[in-house]
């Protein structure tokens, strides 16, 4: 099990932007937290005890941050971070613009990273003028049930993109089992 101190680092870094970099805090506050959807879930209760209450008690910050404020940032971190596979183990980061891309399991853009941790978005297909830009929020090499479940658990929506709605996954039958006979 991860020690509570480690679970708090990213949340604390975000929270301290309010005091030290208010222009960054304003950007963080605008990101989606899905607080209402998260309430009552096992992950929400774990974060409430292991992160929010731990931050307030251990760091003695009851007069600085409210539990509600901490839980909102926990949600922002859960919903908006991107795994950066440049370190071992990988770390997570929030990229303001990248968080605004819509999701599709057959995205028209790809996300990668520079060796210094910057995010690169490149077109994966021809994009018509006015067409929305999309990236895949989950592993595109997973089958439809796994992708949809992961998106529901981590981003709080059931994906209904064209790939998820096609039982053949564009004729690839990617989620299908091959008959042994």
From TrEMBL:
Entries under SUPFAM superfamilies matching the protein: SET domain (SSF82199)
Superkingdom of source: Eukaryota
Pfam families membership: SET
Family annotation (InterPro entries): SET_dom (IPR001214), SET_dom_sf (IPR046341), SET_SmydA-8 (IPR053010), TPR-like_helical_dom_sf (IPR011990)
Domain SET per the UniProt entry, residue ranges: 26-138
GO molecular function: N-methyltransferase activity; protein methyltransferase activity; S-adenosylmethionine-dependent methyltransferase activity
Name of the protein described by the UniProt record: SET domain-containing protein
């Amino acid at each position: 099990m991860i020690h509570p101190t480690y679970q708090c680092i990213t949340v604390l870094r975000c929270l301290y932007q309010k005091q030290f970099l208010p222009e960054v805090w304003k950007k963080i506050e605008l990101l989606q937290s899905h607080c209402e959807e998260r309430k009552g879930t096992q992950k929400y209760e774990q974060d409430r005890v292991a992160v929010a209450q731990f931050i307030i008690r251990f760091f003695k910050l009851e007069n600085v941050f409210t539990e509600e404020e901490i839980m909102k940032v926990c949600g922002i971190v859960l919903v908006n971070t991107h795994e950066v596979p440049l370190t071992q183990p990988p770390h997570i980061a929030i990229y303001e613009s990248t968080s605004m891309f819509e999701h599709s399991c057959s995205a028209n853009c790809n996300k990668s990273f520079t060796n210094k941790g910057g995010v690169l978005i490149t077109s994966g297909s021809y994009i018509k003028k006015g067409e929305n830009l999309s990236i895949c929020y989950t592993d595109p090499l997973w089958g439809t049930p796994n992708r949809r479940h992961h998106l529901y658990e981590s981003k709080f929506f059931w994906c209904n993109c064209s790939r998820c709605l096609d039982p053949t996954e564009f004729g690839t039958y990617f989620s299908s089992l091959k008959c042994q006979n």
